[in-house]
Amino acid sequence: MSVRPGEPPIADQQPASRKPFRPRPILVELASALLVVGSIFNLLISVDGIVLFAQTGGDIGLATVITIALGTLTLGLGLAVRFARAWLLTVNVVAVIGFLELLSQTPIGLLFGALDVIVVLALFRERPWFEWSALERAEAPAGR
């Protein structure tokens, strides 16, 4: 069975040099979405805190600045995970942040801590996909 001109080859007729496409796993999508949405929510809470401090005449506080920095960092990591990058950094940062949120023992801290645990477990479950993606990038021609 040969390929007719103008028709894409079916799976059995693909050249051996082409590697199969591996779509992004649903758990990676979930982890990325949780990181991005959670960090945006954290940033909104931080901005609200800054406005509240400004209205009361208080100091912004180091905690608010740290929260904004961590929210920005997790937003970037969520986007990196979506594009199969920074697996090790993301797992470590999210595990530490999740641990700290669980230690807060506030309802919102427990919620975000539980979501961070889900993210870490999802990323560990899908680690082979990240390894495969890294190998694909390493083997790809430089001109791509």
Describe the 3D structure.
There is one protein chain. This protein has 144 residues and is an all-alpha fold. It is built from five helices and no strands. The chain has one domain (25-139). 71% of the residues lie in helices and 0% in strands. The radius of gyration is 21 Å and the shape is elongated.
Q: What are the main properties of this structure?
A:
elongated; 144 residues; mainly alpha
Percent helix range: over 70%
Overall outline: elongated
The domain count comes to: 1
- Category by helix and strand content: mainly alpha
How many extended strands? 0
User: Any low-confidence stretches, pLDDT <50, length ≥5?
Assistant: none
- Rounded mean pLDDT score: 84
The string of secondary-structure elements, in order, is: HHHHH
How many whole angstroms does the radius of gyration measure? Answer: 21 Å
Q: Distance N terminus to C terminus? A: 31 Å
- Largest sheet at a glance? none
Task: List strands and helices in order, with pairings.
Layout: H1 26-56, H2 62-82, H3 87-104, H4 107-125, H5 127-139
What is this entry, summarized?
By secondary structure, the protein is mostly helical. It is built from 5 helices and no strands.
